[in-house]
Amino acid sequence: MKTPKELLDELLKFIEKLAGKEGVMVFKELMKYDGVTEEQIADDLGMKVNDVRKVLYKFEEYGLVKSYKEKEDENNQIYYLWRIERDTLNQSLLLLKKEVLKKLEEKLEDEENEVYFYCPKDFTRLRYSEAMLYDFTCPKCGTPLEMDEDNLSKVILKKYVNKLKEEIENEEKSL
Fold this sequence. Notes:
The protein is 59% helix and 13% strand. By secondary structure, it is of the alpha+beta class. Helix 1 packs across helix 2 (38-45) and helix 2 packs across helix 3. The two termini are 14 Å apart.
């Protein structure tokens, strides 16, 4: 069982992959509030409001955050507050992981069904059909291509696919 700190670290790593370092900053800031404006986040972090807004919209697209309308009493001006969707956060992250897994599995299938060649000099990597077009010589430097028998990409993809499957399985058990 993971500790809360380990879970938070894992979540923030995922957020960084989704929205970069700015996304992590915005998410951490959102964690401090039950509802906060884009302007307040931008002001607190020293960011441009448009940059904060882009990150928030990306989070909203994946169901990680939600905005809701509020009215100011004195000017009757409408503004939006943002908050983390704590109730559905785990489910949203699980769906995201499943999407990533599907893409990784498609890429792995491609790696398993295709023959690749590479340039030992500059490491340009080509599919068999592309290598044929260049008479099995590197299009960049003219070095003869070699068959990628080890296919390190396939090995790495298998590792990530298996790890992600295990994470998804564990998370589905805990929901």
